[in-house]
């Protein structure tokens, strides 16, 4: 007897489908017996009744496909994506300053000032950290300036895009 037939008879390496409701039955492990339960109609099937499975017992078996190569490829792609996302996060100027792109220019400026006082080399910070902070702040200022220019050219002017009233 070949292994596919023997595994089908003992319900090893197969998925069991309830033909009553068409839902894949979940495996409930026992000591020596495998139990399958349908979450739709709550029917049960056990591996001791494999002869009944060949008859019309409202269940159908499907051999389990080997997905080892697909799983390895998925893990490889997932790892690459996580590395790429972490590299993007490290370059995000808003995250470095701890502000949101929706925050006002005043809030961004206040946060920059507070971090500059902490990270300035004259106050015990490092030159590299201060340089990163300055680059991030300049990128945010350029982004805000582009947003203002886009708002002016599109015809919709937001309150933050208008110049302050002279006194």
What does this structure look like?
This protein has 167 residues and is α+β, with helices and mostly antiparallel strands. It has 2 domains: 3-63, no CATH class; 93-154, Helix Hairpins (Orthogonal Bundle), CATH 1.10.287. It contains 6 helices and 5 strands. A hairpin with a 6-residue loop joins β3 (34-37) and β4 (44-46). The protein starts with a helix and ends in a 13-residue tail after the last helix. The relative contact order is 0.08. Mean pLDDT is 78; it is low at 1-9. Residues 145-167 are annotated as: Disordered. It comes from Myxococcus llanfairpwllgwyngyllgogerychwyrndrobwllllantysiliogogogochensis. This is J domain-containing protein.
